[in-house]
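Teaching note: in complex prediction, the entire set of molecules is handled at once rather than each chain in isolation. The prompt given to students was simply: 'Predict the structure of this complex.' The entities are:
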Amino acid sequence: MTDHHDQLDEWLESDAGATDIVPSSGFTDRVMTAVRESAVAPPPIPFPWLRVVPWIVVAIALMGFSSLEVMRLSPSASPEFDLPAAWQSRLQSVGSPDMVWLTLGILLSLVTMTFAMRVGAWRRPR
Amino acid sequence: VTTTDDVADVDRVLAGDLSAFEGIVRRWQRPLVNLAYRFCRDRSRAEDLAQEAFVLAYRNLKQWRHDAAFSTWLFAVATNHYRSALRRLPIPVVPLDSVAEPRAHVETADADTGRAVRRAVDTLPAPYREAVTLYYFQEMNVAAAAASLAIPEGTLKARLSRARDLLRRKLGRHGAGLVGRTTP
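The expected output is the structure of the full assembly:
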């Protein structure tokens, strides 16, 4: 393979025979037991692409639609959510509107995360 | 001898005769355990890895196309498994610089250099170590080693060349006396 065969090649090649591990006496039986267990084990559950793909498509479509809408709106007409007047006055008494939205966002994230973890724990085989 | 035996055993296993797989295990257990040992340098773990490789081979037996030798396919399955297993749980590698040479007893220069070379190979980055392991230690040819690592032959040759450069540098630093002793 190489143009020259140097001392290093010789050392590396000589090591090939220097180490020879003989498998332990019960190795074949252990392998065959594992193979038999594998043969009767149920096949792994495939990832449910059929269920997931439509949601991925919907999510992408929503993201695309939202991006287009945001780009279409002028900066002066940036989207703002109007809460009922009673809510607005109550929220303004708590703090600045930015802080309120930030707190709401964090709370929503926590609720979503807790819900996802509970669903995950419920689905995990016991 | 083994080629026809392998084909016959694979056909029997695929036809539902699980016991035929034992022939494959008996024929290839030693090479696969040795290959695993080359990767992990731990006898017990080598047997575990080889066992897992056999189970993987059994599960994927249908994927073997008869255009390549069964041994090439089996080694590719095993090598791929060993590499991913060691990525998940790597072996602790002691840097060559921090290894003290044994001085307490008299050893031949050959044995010393052999050990130094082996240790130097262990300290190589994974892609180079794997190439050296398959080509030199496992005595595969370029085509078989490249197939086992799922890389083009040119890439394997480049990795071997780079590995030799790194080894010469490492061993030269440690006085193994390999640098400049090129024989044409």
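Point out the following to students. Chain B touches chain A at residues 18, 21-22, 25-26, 29-30, 33-34, 37-38, 43, 46-47, 50-52, 54-55, 58-59, 113-114, 117-118, 121, 132, 136-139, 142, 157, 160-161, 164, 167-168, 171, 177-178, 181-184 (CB under 8 Å). The two ends of chain B are 36 Å apart (CA to CA).
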